[in-house]
Hints:
Elements: H1 14-28, H2 44-60, H3 67-88
Helix pairs in contact: 1-2, 1-3, 2-3
Amino acid sequence: MEQKKMEWMPPVTFSTFILSLNTTALIHLGELPHPETQRKEVNLVLAKHTIDTLDMLKEKTRGNLSPDEERLLESILYELRLRFVKLTR
C-alpha cells in the first residue's frame, strides 16, 4: 500500500492562524465558496462564533503580540464585523 503524500502547508504562526480563522469567517459570511461544496452559503451563527473566537484571542493575547500581529488582528476583526453587520441589517 502506498503512503499518501503529505500536502505542503505553510508553517503555523500566529498570523497564519488568524488568517485561517479569517478565511473560515468569510466562508460562513458567504464571501467565499465552501471548500467542499464550492457554493457560497451564509451561516451567521458560525460566522459570529468565528468572529467571537478572534475577539477572544485578541483579549487573551493583549500585550503579547508584535505590532504587525496586532494590526493584522485588529484589521481582520474590523472588516469581519462590518461584513457581519451588513448581513444582519
